[in-house]
Amino acid sequence: MDGDALRGHLDMLLLTAIGAGDVYGYGLIRGLRDRSDGVIELPEGTVYPALHRLYRSGYVTRDEQWVDGRQRRTYALTDDGRALLAAQVDLWNAVQKAVAAVLDSTSTTKTCSGRASR
Predict the structure, then answer these.
(1) Distance, CA of 29 to CA of 7 (rounded, Å)
(2) Alpha helix locations (H) across 20-72?
């Protein structure tokens, strides 16, 4: 599943992964892939711009370290980041519940034809 399929949910996924513990970019990508049994496979070109945006917005902090001669940035949630994550999780749960209700109601005997009844 690429970033386009997750549009609108990317920040929530990244903030959740960061909230599990300070993490660096590639570790975050690998962690999401592993936790989703390989379903969520995000390219660096999707993750790093999102991380930079979250940093500029004040939702995450970053710490830069040198590891094996390479610069590594680790990310952590700010209080604003935790608040944003909580709001996004609440919204996700509401949307998930609503979509499940629609799917359940149409999978029994009803159908959604998209036509107005007269």
Answers:
(1) 16
(2) 25-35, 44-56
- CA dist., res. 58 & res. 44, Å (int): 21
Contact yes or no for 6/92 (Cβ under 8 A): no
SS3 state at 45: helix
Sequential DSSP letters for the chain: --TTTTTTTHHHHHHHHHHTS-EEHHHHHHHHHHHTTTS----HHHHHHHHHHHHHTTSEEEEEEEETTEEEEEEEE-HHHHHHHHHHHHHHHHHHHHHHHHHHHHHTT-----PPP-
The pLDDT value recorded for residue 58 is: 98
pTM of the entire structure?
Answer: 0.79
